[in-house]
Write a structure and sequence with these properties.
Low-confidence stretches: none
Helix content: over 70%
Structural class: mainly alpha
Largest sheet: none
Mean pLDDT: 81
Strand content: under 5%
Order of helices and strands: HHH
Length: about 70
C-alpha cells in the first residue's frame, strides 16, 4: 500500500469514528430544543422524543460499529 493510500485509509477511519458522537450530540441538541409534549395529549407517547431526535439516535446507533471494532481490539 502506498503512503498516500495509507494516509487516506487513516483519515477514513477517523471519519468513521466521528459519525456516531456527532449524531449523538445532534440528538441531544434537538431533544433540548424540542417543545415540551403535553402530558394529557391523545397521542402522547411513553418517551418524550420527537421525530428528529429519534432519527439522530438511530443514525448514532447505525454508525456505532467502528467504535465496537475499536473496543474489541483493546
Amino acid at each position: 500500500m502506498s503512503a498516500t493510500a495509507n494516509k487516506a485509509a487513516g483519515k477514513t477511519a477517523w471519519l468513521a469514528l466521528a459519525a456516531s458522537p456527532v449524531f449523538a450530540a445532534m440528538a441531544l441538541v434537538s431533544a433540548a430544543d424540542a417543545p415540551p409534549l403535553a402530558l394529557c395529549a391523545a397521542g402522547a407517547t411513553l418517551l418524550p422524543v420527537d421525530g428528529m431526535t429519534a432519527m439522530y439516535l438511530l443514525m448514532s446507533l447505525f454508525h456505532l460499529p467502528p467504535w465496537l471494532k475499536l473496543a474489541g481490539r483493546g
